[in-house]
Amino acid sequence: MPQKRTAIRAGLLASVLLWAVPGFSQDASEVVDSAFAKMHAAETEQDFMLAAQEVVRLGDAAIPDLTRRFVAAQDEAGRIETSYLLATILAQSKFQRRVPELPPELVPTLAKLLHEPADISLEANLANLAGFAPPHPQELAPGLLALLERTQDPSLQATTSAALVYQGEGVVPFVQEALLRSKDDRFSGNLAHILQGSETLPDDVKAKLRSLLESDDAEARQMASRTLSKAGDRDPAMLDAALRDLETAQSEVDLAMATIRVQENTDRSQRVANALKTAFETKANRIEERRQIIVALSKSGTPGLQAYLDLVKTAPNVEVFEHLTIAVPSELKNDPRVADLLISALIAAKDEAMVKSATFALAKLPSIAQPAIKEALARDDLDVETMQRLHAVGAVAGWPPSRQ
After folding, report:
1. Is it the case that residue 236 has pLDDT exceeding 60?
2. I need a surface site. Which of 56, 78, 174, 209 has the fewest CB within 10 A?
C-alpha cells in the first residue's frame, strides 16, 4: 500500500470529515477490522479513502480499537495508518468542540514515539495527533520539543509548533527551558514564535531573545523581535534587527514584515528614514509594499516626512508617482510643500497620464492646492497649455477660493 495514502493531508482530511457522522449500529471492532482489511487490499486512492471513511464514521467509538492497534504496531507502516486515523477522528472532535475520552495508554505511547526519529509521514501524523488530542503538556511537550528541534522540514516545524501551542499555558515552562538551553538559532526562533502569546517573560528568557536579534538567521531575528515587542520590550537592538531585515528582504512578504517592525521600533532618526527610502526605491515593486513604507515614513518624524517628499520629487514614472500620492500622509495634508511638488509635477508632465495623476492628487487637497495654483497662475513663464492645466485643476479642487 503506498505510504502517501496514510500521511494526513488537508484535502483528504476534509473529505473524510464530510463523511463523518455520529452513530453506527455495527460493532466498532468489527467495522475497524473490516476497514483495515479493505485499506490493505486497496488498489487505488479512492478505495483507500472509502475504507478509511468507514472507520472515521464511527467517531469516538473507534478510538479504543485504533489505540490498541497504534500501541501494538511493530513497524512504521502500522503506526502511520493508525496515527492518521486517530488524528482524523480527534480533529473531528476538536472541530465539534467535544473532548473525547482517551484510552490511558494512548498519550504515553504518543509521547514515547515523538522522541524517536522516524519517517516524516509518521512524524507529521504524530504531531497532528498531539495537536488534535486534548492537551497533555506534561506528557507531550518534551517529545514535541524534541521533534521540533530535530526536524529540518518547514511544514513539520509549523505543525509541531502549532501542536505545542495547543497544549495551552502548561507548555510555556517547557518552551522557556528549551529556549534557554538551545544553541540552534533556527530552533530558538521556532520557540520564540511559540512564546509570542506571553505577555510577560522572565528576564533570562528576554535576554536570550535579545541575543537572537543579532543572529544570522533572519527568521530567528524576526520571531525574537515580535515576541519581545508583544511582551512590551523595546530594546534598541530590535530596531537594528528590523533594519537588517529590511536591508536583506528578498520577498514581498519579508519586505512588508520588516517594514512593519521598523515602524514599530522607529527612533524617528535619519538612519531610519534613509533605510526606508532606499527600500522603497530598490525593493518595493507593488503598491502594497510601497504604501506600507510610506506609512512607516510618516511615523518616523521629520526625517521620514522629508524622505517621503524626496520620493515624490524624484518619482521615476507615473505608476510610482501615483502610488506615492494616492494617499498623502495625514501629517502632510496641510503642508504647502506637497502642493508645490504636485504643481511642479503637473507643469513638467510630458503625458496625459501624469497630468491626470497630479490633478487627482491636488483635487484631494483643496486647502493647500488653491493657494499653490493661484501662485502658479501669477507666473509669466508658463505656456497656454500649462495655464489651461492649472485652471482645470483649480476647477476640480474647488477654485476659486470663494467657493470653499
Report:
1. yes
2. 78
The C-alpha cell 521600533 sits at 265
141-153: b or e for each residue (b if 16 or more CB lie within 10 Å)? bbbbbbbbbebee
Residue linked to cell 506528557: 139
DSSP class of residue 300 equals S
Residue 394's nearest CA partner among 342, 348, 353 is: 342
CB atoms within 10 A of CB 283: 20
Domain 163-233: assigned CATH number = 1.25.10
Look at residue 390 in the predicted model and tell me its pLDDT. Answer: 84
8 Å CB contact between 265 and 238: yes
Amino acid at 32: V
Name the CA dihedral angle for 241, 246, 251, 257, rounded to a multiple of 10 degrees: 70
Q: Nearest 5°: CA angle at 115, between 3 and 73?
A: 45
- Which of 229, 218, 311 is CA-nearest to residue 263? 229
- Distance between CA 225 and CA 227 in Å, rounded? 6
Which residues, other chains included, contact 144 with Cβ-Cβ below 8 Å and sequence gap of 6+? 114, 127, 130, 160, 163, 164, 167
How far does CA 229 lie from the centroid of its chain?
16
Contacts of 365 (CB under 8 A, 6+ apart): 328, 333, 338, 339, 342, 397
Alpha helix stretches (DSSP H) within 182-251: 185-194, 203-212, 218-230, 236-248
What is the per-residue pLDDT across 134-189, written as a single tens digit (0 to 9) for each? 999 999 999 999 999 999 999 999 999 999 999 999 999 999 999 999 999 999 99
pLDDT band at 404 (very low <50, low <70, confident <90, very high): very low
Judge contact between 195 and 201, C-beta under 8 A: yes
Domain locations in the chain as residue ranges:
1-134, 163-233, 234-332, 334-404
pTM metric for this prediction: 0.73
Query: From CA 256, how far away is CA 262, in angstroms rounded?
Result: 10
